[in-house]
Amino acid sequence: MPHQPCVYILASRPHGALYIGVTRDIAMRVWLHKQGKASWHTAKYNIKRLVWLEHSPTMPDAIALEKRLKNWHRAWKIELIEKSNPRWHDLYETLNA
């Protein structure tokens, strides 16, 4: 399922800086973030921990969800993360499991 559209949230640390993105290849995209090659923002603020993701049936659906999440209040984003990942574990290792 590596090429299914996906919306994701990265964090620098629990309750730290957040980044919301969308991709068709979540494993590759997060790897690029971890290498500091995907976004100047994530590289500058050391945002490398994958803390939340949701697959979408189509890329337009994923883009629409990404836009909605970017407009949310920070507290809502944190609540969303903590519903499925209360300890803010890096989910990257689970992508290829």
Quick summary:
The chain is an alpha+beta fold and 97 residues long. Helix content is 38%, strand content 20%. The chain is built from four helices and three strands, in the order ββααβαα.
Q: What is the radius of gyration computed over CA atoms, rounded to a whole number of angstroms?
A: 12 Å
Secondary-structure class: alpha+beta
Mean pLDDT: 95
What is the N-to-C succession of helices and strands? EEHHEHH
Count the DSSP helices.
Answer: 4
Q: Within the largest sheet, what's the order of strands?
A: 2-1-3
Note the overall shape. Answer: globular
Residue runs with pLDDT of under 50 for 5 or more positions: none
- Care to count the β-strands? 3
Percent in helix: 25-40%
Provide the β-strand percentage band: 15-25%
Largest sheet: 3 strands, antiparallel
For the terminal residues, how far apart are their CA atoms? Answer: 11 Å
Q: What can you tell me about this protein's structure?
A:
- This protein is α+β, with helices and mostly antiparallel strands and 97 residues long.
- The protein has a domain at 1-10 and 27-52.
- Helices cover 38% and strands 20% of the residues.
- A three-stranded antiparallel beta sheet has the order 2-1-3, with helices on both faces.
- A hairpin with a 6-residue loop joins β1 and β2 (18-23).
- The longest helix has 12 residues, at 59-70.
- It is globular.
- The chain starts with 5 loop residues before the first strand and ends in a 13-residue tail after the last helix.
- The mean pLDDT is 95.
